[in-house]
Amino acid sequence: MKVLFIGGTGNISASVSRQAIDRGIELYLLNRGKRFSKIPGAKSIVGDINRLEDIDSILKGNTWDAVVNWIAFTEQDIKRDYKLFQGKTKQYVFISSASAYQKPLTFPFVTESTPLANPFWQYSRDKIACEMKLNSYYRQERFPITIVRPSLTYDTVIPVPIGGWMEYTIVDRIKKGKKIIVHGDGTSLFTITHADDFAKGFLGLLGQQQAIGESFHITSDEILTWNQIHQALAEAVECEVKIVHIPSDILATFDENLRGSLIGDKATSVIFDNTKIKRFVPDFTATIPFTQGIRRTIKWFDTDPARQIIRKETNVWMEKIINQYEKAFNP
User: Fold this and answer.
1) Cα dihedral angle (280, 285, 288, 290), rounded to 10 degrees?
2) I need a labelling partner for 117 at 20 to 30 A (CA). Which of 124, 133, 150, 281 fits?
3) Residue 302 lies in a domain
4) Domain membership flag for residue 276
5) Is 279 a member of any domain?
6) Rounded-to-integer distance, Cα 8 and Cα 14, Å
7) In terms of domains, do 212 and 185 share one?
8) Which residue range forms the structural domain that includes residue 112?
9) Element (H or E) spanning 55, and its range?
């Protein structure tokens, strides 16, 4: 199977790329060549997907069993890809986001038929617009789409909303015995999925005729509270954690970016029903618990000190919010 990944070296996609090679897929990675991540066995195509004429020339003469765009975020990206790949691929896979699902939820169990509506996060609304455009291409032009909605998926990022992701700030604070912020009362439920588990479900959809025109989310079945998630992070670095709970809506007043990622996503309890992906990919099972996976992630960060980004601005912000909140509510 000949497959093109647009991107393919990121937090989620690198795991998928490695497993694709292990499965014998003829994998091509199209990117600008600015990342140093090397996927042994993959064939590299250097180019900027946004330079349509150049990319059309670079890809000329190629047809694909599947094309996966890991870095499409706007409707304009979808229009561009349709021009590039209509008639040139048997399957086009769009990486959407589970944050596109209805917020607030009217029912906590999320299936692929849960409505898409997120008034809190522009990122999610853009993904919804992409899905709508793709579905119109599928209905009207038979463009062979498959939509995949990852939820919070990690490997080379720390999957917590404040002081984490590509930052090491929260880990540094935990190691130094400083207080950290957990949104809400820490009891809302969420699912965090390791990229290696996601890859198993995802690759089962590639080249599958029955997946054309369908949408899927792919997550672990492990459900944790945010208190448990932060506790597991602290245990991974063998430290105690000092949590300060602050309501999500208060945090959003101090940082507008948190309005989307908290109110529009992580503050809502959600339970993902993975029946559909398991029906289409019967051998898919997520097997990496967060307590194990986060240790692997911390080891990755600790292997190279350059990865341990500690932002002074984040520390100052957290200290300010904690001090103000405790002064107001714990005088």
Assistant:
1) 70
2) 281
3) yes
4) no
5) no
6) 5
7) no
8) 2-153+193-218
9) helix 52-59
| DSSP-assigned letters across all residues of 96-119 | --GGGB-SS-SSSEE-TTS-B--T
Amino acid identity of 297? Answer: T
Same domain, 211 and 102: yes
In the chain, the number of structural domains is 2
Q: What is the CATH number of the domain that holds 23?
A: 3.40.50.720
108 plus 10 within the same structural domain: yes
Give the tens place of pLDDT for each residue, 43-93.
999 888 888 878 888 898 899 999 999 999 999 999 999 999 999 999 999
As a whole number of angstroms, the longest Cα–Cα distance in the chain is 70
Is the distance from CB of 163 to CB of 173 less than 8 angstroms? yes
Question: If we measure between CA atoms, which residue out of 89, 45, 112, 53 comes closest to residue 280?
Answer: 112
> Per-block average pLDDT, block size 10, for the chain (331 residues)?
94 97 96 73 90 85 96 96 96 98 92 97 97 98 98 98 97 98 97 98 97 98 98 98 96 91 94 98 97 98 96 96 90 61
Q: Give domain status of residue 283, yes or no.
A: no
- Do 316 and 296 fall into the same domain? yes
State the pairing for strand pair 26-31/145-150. Answer: unpaired
Q: Which pair of tokens denotes residue 250?
A: 């208060």
